[in-house]
């Protein structure tokens, strides 16, 4: 674009008004650069020929630099064509008019704020803008961008970046580690089946448009930290996209229904990336400590009281420190063409679990906590089921009669086809529906003795839905899972069970960390795939930790199981046990049978009365118990880290950049991660591996199994036999004493 088209006016024609501490004076912009000018006693700004910069007055560290050789604000009016199927969204935007040109007319510094005013324009497009930067503290600046034309609903905000700058975070991201050169978008949806791994992604797209891509995720967060030790967070909840493909700039695209309310955000600077995570979580929320029982093995099994009791007893006999039984089919089992699913009606299924309350009590007597399942859907009868469907749902009938459901564009209850059967979403903007839902949780779940549950879904709100409050679904879509977590948390608090009950969510957005008690990573494939298998679950842990999800974990062995003539995705013994090794170094150690339990290798051996046996063997039960004991041996360390997370927001599982920000070599090993600062783990991510390359940063390290010492700043080939994961403790670390206790418990 030519300078004529850019039209950023830096001539004497446009006066700049500058106000210092409430006294205003008018100056004309000279041809030479302006001197440094304070905004307040700690933060200054400077205008040069090339840019406007805001920086810390003493350290000179930049908050932001706005280039003056191209527009840093553009706007448009757009009409989005959004395709929706199974919570997979496809966006196509038709821009009716575009304001690509920008003029700066004024710069005002008054009352401790820096304000830039001007216009954006183009064919049939003209709007004033106001961009404000407001220092909040020595290292925090908030900003807002407002447009005067109320019809404009798209805005692009650009600022400078360095060619060497790396970007980490953006919520729970499964495919990428450093986002320099990438274009992540922020819209909560199903992560997709395959997400680029083949042939499954192509197959999922052909059958249901549900393959996903490298950016699809349940929990995007418009927040990052960069290798320049600065961090940016966008407050808005509409669809947004970060374009990091230009080596010298960042561009943020935001869709909003009314940009008079503006694009709003916060920028932090710090001397260390941990400082940035602490600042972000101070603003958005931190996780509460976990109860003591949460650090043992959580067995995720289903099939009725007799089966789950036998599996719990088997695991404990093998020495597995089982402290929780997660039975998602407490509400009933519903078999569909997708596999074993649930009856989405939220009360105990007495057929599978007779006298459910007493069953829970009996498990508690064995020091086993019982967890269930809930989501914000209410299921309906499936009219497509061969031979008819005898399913009934009294809760759905009640919710329909009381007007508690999300509506479609015609004002009718919005029927959504989920995987397996149709269902309706509860309208979380309706206060009466919220109270009804919380009462349901308190009565049907907490009062029967459940110690927690999976609070599933949250990402399925249709883009064109109509809501009780009148808020546009386009901007509420990303907020829906946050409110879903908040409602679960409030129900627990109202029942007087704070700190005793744990619910875990998969969908999330900004401020989810203020309400969820735990996250899990959703439905990975039972595979080794980079984009949707075991490796992807590791990047999900490290990226989400940077964006406030301090407590996170995955289904051990993955979830999505598919039988297909081209390629089967069935869990193998090796995958299950290697996944268990990785999960042993996360705060919660929980299994899942997957959507087709009989196709997957399981952590238990069980044969039904009908003679149907699980895919497993005695060695698996034994080795899985060993991994359970390994995880439990870290209990003291985990407890300290969880308390630290509650106080500081720092995640338990830590991206290497958080711990060793000055070590550029360690960034070449994206699947390594730290547990706290003093325990480093290098996972096996490919089948057939019995050794791995481990990079150890500066200092001295000790292998947890052999006691062998290693000097840092070096890459080592380390043998990793099954059941002996590659983990090292930092000698001289702050928590070496606690980790010595861990090593003494696991033996050699």
UniProtKB/TrEMBL annotation:
Boundaries of every Glycosyl hydrolase family 31 C-terminal domain copy: 649-732
Glycoside hydrolase family 31 TIM barrel domain boundaries: 290-638
Lineage: superkingdom: Bacteria
Keyword Hydrolase: yes
Keywords: Glycosidase, Hydrolase
Family membership: Belongs to the glycosyl hydrolase 31 family.
Record's protein name: Alpha-glucosidase
UniProt source species: Leptospira kobayashii
Lineage: Bacteria, Pseudomonadati, Spirochaetota, Spirochaetia, Leptospirales
